[in-house]
Structure of Ferritin:
Amino acid sequence: MLSIDLQAALNKQIKIEGDSSQIYLEMASWAEIQGFEGISAFMYAQSDEERQHMLRLVKYINQRGGKAEIPAITQPELDHSSFKTLFKQLFEHEVFVSQSINDLVHIALTERDYATHNFLQWYVAEQIEEEATARTILDKINLIGDDKGGLYLFDNDIKNFIQTD
Ligand code: OFO
């Protein structure tokens, strides 16, 4: 059985993953309108992934005898003034998510809830991957700047980052 504190912390993470899904969805739609097909496909896929991260938490909380709280949808507020700004926000968001997962791991260990600790290891590994992807993309964008030709190539290149698992 989950403690009240751990349940509350896991429920908070449900909202964070849901918000992440919305952020990627917003970027997917924006890129689609701009004609960046590759970026859009990547963002739509990421948005789906984040929803899966959210669902995993919902199911885990309920499976452990708790009650998952389904949060309201939050409208993302992103700065689209440049590609660099946009992707920087994405990277910073993933760093924030990793920190939040680390905090959860800490609570699980403090409470000696090893089942939850074990459950969270999947997220720890996933965040390493997501942070690395966001960092690589940001590095590329920093190299390209707002060069149209570079962005065109990048739009094609980013398809390689779409996770298939
Ligand atoms: Fe990229 O946030 Fe989920 O874990």
User: Anything to note?
Assistant: The pocket of hydroxy diiron-OXO moiety is lined by residues 17, 20, 50, 53, 94, 97, 123, 126-127, 130 (CB under 6 Å). The radius of gyration is 17 Å. The longest helix spans residues 4-34.
